């Protein structure tokens, strides 16, 4: 595959009912003029999905009407509901990357947010891959990584899976780096030091500021992201208890490797 270059992004694009304004250069766009619900028409849903695949995370302001049921109904327009799963506290991650099939999309609604602080930051894992020099892309294409939730499982049985470091997106065909806080080791390496060094090398590419967008939450805000093309983390600069967000996840697929194999669960 050739190195992918995104189309130049125009400041505001309008397609039917959906108006999309990029928030940052490589990831994130705000959508105006859409009232989220389970009642959106098929054309609007298709436009939102297209914008989501392109911008990786979409932000909606002023969705005060939305409650948990309405949020779930909207999420069902994107796919089958999936169990919401715990996140590593404050660390960069892709949701539930330790699962055989990590969620495809996530919908996060501000219920109670601090006046300032507690932002969420997302990173574009496709841009991170595309930015790699060819020698590192070729190495990344071959590597597999063990993901585990042992740090968040709270004494229960840890869930584990082996996934390709580079996953081919099922809808766009883009290649994305799959790492984050649940990534434990590179499969086949005999020393922990080698494993850590390689994971750090690629993870640092993901979280470069140029690949990120930071969102300052206000009441009524909703963020929707493609968990197959992003990582995210919260910024821990707010008082305990001052921030409540409601998450709804949508099922995804077992990550597809460049060579056609898929991620597998481990016992
Ligand atoms: Fe998360």
Tell me the radius of gyration: 18 Å
Mean pLDDT value: 92
Ligands and ions found = fe (ii) ion
Q: State the end-to-end CA separation.
A: 34 Å
Cofactor: Fe(2+)
Keywords: Dioxygenase, Iron, Metal-binding, Oxidoreductase
Family: Belongs to the TfdA dioxygenase family.
InterPro entries: AtsK-like (IPR051323), TauD-like_sf (IPR042098), TauD/TfdA-like (IPR003819)
Summarize the structure.
The chain has 267 residues and is of the alpha+beta class. The protein is built from five helices and 17 strands.
Descriptive overview:
The longest helix has 15 residues, at 192-206. An 8-stranded mixed sheet has the order 1-2-3-4-14-6-16-5, covered by helices on one side. The chain has a 4-stranded antiparallel sheet with strand order 12-8-9-17. A 3-stranded antiparallel sheet has the order 13-7-15. It is α+β, with helices and mostly antiparallel strands and 267 residues long. The protein has 5 helices and 17 strands. Fe (ii) ion binds next to loops. Fe (ii) ion is lined by residues 87, 93, 95, 232. Pfam families: TauD. It comes from Actinomadura parmotrematis. Residues 20-80, 87-248 form the TauD/TfdA-like domain.
Features:
single chain, 267 residues, alpha+beta, 5 helices, dioxygenase, four-stranded antiparallel beta sheet
